[in-house]
Amino acid sequence: MFTHTIVRTPCSKVCDGITSAPELGKPVYGKALEQHAAYIEALKACGVDVKVLPADEAFPDSCFVEDVAVVTRKCAVITNPGAPSRNHETDSIRGVLLEYYDDAVIEKIQAPGTLEGGDVMMCGDTFYVGRSARTNAEGIRQFGEILGKYGFTVIEVPLAEVLHLKTGVNYLENGTMLVAGEFTDKPEFAAYKKIEIPVEEAYAANCIWMNGTVIVPEGYPTVLARIREAGYPVITVDTSEFRKIDGGLSCLSLRF
Ligand code: GLY
């Protein structure tokens, strides 16, 4: 179960966030703020406290706070984002993490290792890590060494099609994964039950399990129906403005 979440208010430069889909247009700031506020309410409805960090105008993508740290029940790992424009988003996160973790268990990925939290999926005590354009072999090596000290297992998953691991696969607990595209038949996930997503709704692979409820992006009816059929209560949140800059529900929070 999660008790805490951390989010960061989108900054006014959010329209300049990195995107692989310029055809979707730029985020509208006012709408992004409204959607972010609704996201916070959805988290609270799942029984967690929500710490809201102030907007950081230096970093257009800084609302995607998931990428700057990996938070576990025993330790926190400050990442080293592989996107140059995002690399220094980590500078202010240690002070925040110190509110929840002892300094001794706050770890850091060091250059030349790179790692972004969007590439890390926690499944119990096993952490799958996507080797991506943002997370490199050295970052995964360091992450494995760090988590190994705490008794966790790290398994690398090579990515071919997507930005981050959790762009295409998310763990809904109960041995069940929500999978799209290249993740439907990855050997690393052979032992899990799968809820498969049609290609036209692939964006909605990025749902989050929050204490039994699944938060689902608004506008993906097949995914919504399949998650309901699997027995989960759901809450929907509109993420249209974040989608325009390759962001989804998991990217918008740290959950622990
Ligand atoms: N725009 C989100 C990212 O590229 O990291």
Structure notes:
The protein has 256 residues and is of the alpha/beta class. The protein has a single domain, classed as L-arginine/glycine Amidinotransferase, Chain A, CATH 3.75.10.10. 20% of the residues lie in helices and 23% in strands. The chain contains six helices and 15 strands. The protein has helices at residues 29-45, 93-97, 137-149, 165-168, 221-229, 240-243, and strands at residues 4-8, 49-53, 69-71, 76-78, 106-108, 120-123, 126-131, 153-158, 169-171, 176-179, 193-196, 208-210, 213-217, 234-237, 254-255. Strands 2-1-15 form a three-stranded mixed β-sheet, covered by helices on one side. Helix 1 (29-45) links the parallel strand 1 and strand 2. The longest helix has 17 residues, at 29-45. It is globular. The chain starts with a strand and ends with a strand. The relative contact order is 0.18. Glycine (GLY) binds at residues 17-18, 61, 64, 83, 86, 245-247.
